Amino acid sequence: MATLATADWAHVDLSEYPRMRVPAPGPRSRELHERCTRYFKGLSGQVKLFPVVFESGRGCTLVDVDGNRYIDFSSGIYVTTLGHCHPKITEAVRHYAGTLMNCHDFTTEVKTRLMEKMAEILPGDLTGYQLYDSGTTAVEAGMRVLRAATGRNEMLSCFYDFHGKTYGAVSLAHIRSQVYGRVRAPGMHMVPRPDTYRPVWSKPDGSIDTDAYLRFYEEYLDKGTVGDVAGFVLEPIQGWGGSIIPPDDFFPKLRQLCDRHKILLMADEVLTGMGRTGKWLCMEHWNTQPDIVSLGKGFGNGFPVTAVAVREPFKESFEKISASSSYGGNPMACAAAMASIEVIEEENLLERALHLEKIAMQRMARMKDEHPIIGDVRGKGCLFGIELVKDRATKEPFDKAGERVYQRAFAKGLAWIPAGHILRMSPPIVMEDEVMLKGLDLIDEAIGETERELAHGG
To answer: What domain range is 221 assigned to?
Structure first.
């Protein structure tokens, strides 16, 4: 078993990274971005705020077309959990790209090995699987399994969760768009979820009152639904919502509520699963067994492969839903997922993610002590959030500061994720300690500069 030291291939020379040869976005980035966006539309917020054009990546680093070198604190938004171009994963995909690219859902040797490995590593009796090519598709399939397994139709989900961009997935989430007629799909219900920094219900001492949330769910099931709820679908940790981590007693109590009402519990682990938080599944942190799990993003470390995992009593429901897909489970995808799992095991990366959590949280705690605009810092494994506020007493969100900090740190050579007033970070779990601390130093500098600028009316 490997030690907690990072593999040699992912070593970063901090005398070379970050290094900004020209102010970013540089001239070549601006030219290519302008040419591309004449045709390519619907960009993410992070690209609009900082339209750099990347050329290559290795391990925890990126290089843009102007030669600027960055430390990667995004992982392609939670995707390249094991860093860019890991040699083993690259070779696995290359092999099947030259051997067998697709054979629909026929069995292959690599798919067989992947199924057996998933049954070995996933907790409990999550032993039924289907493979897809996007997180949204996996979530939609998971909902179909919920309905097939229970014979019910309604769904519960939570405020500020994110589950994808098709109609069903959007109806689970906090997204408004005219293209959906401004109407959720029938039978889709949303409820608040515990946020320890911004609780809806709190105890007299100010701490979060988890039981109040559960009492509300009980009341809502009775009064807000028609008694036809198939599943409760939610992210273990909210990503788009700002790296929101629930209190430790939430999921065990939610599991009990679901069992009482014969509702299945679906964990959308597209973002949090496969090592990102230091466990194969984030739900393992709370010793809670979901009935259905959606996996994606880091599952194939950048190759588009996702999955739905279902507990033993419900896995035959796949036979009722026309579960197969054109691209799901193709040999390249299975090879990428299999190699990613092997890398996590061989390089002891679950422990490494937890180690990185400790040093990052210590550093961010010091940042909070030093910067008045930091209201909260949080993290689990290599998934972090820093919440910026105008006033710690009122907790008023500071969106303007969030935008400025994001752009300033990016200009210093940190590729990462904006989320309004919440700064989100998802560095690869192969990152070296010194690189993690260097990235946080860049954020620290950017926050300090932003505080001074805004204090002077900037």
So the answer is: 87-346
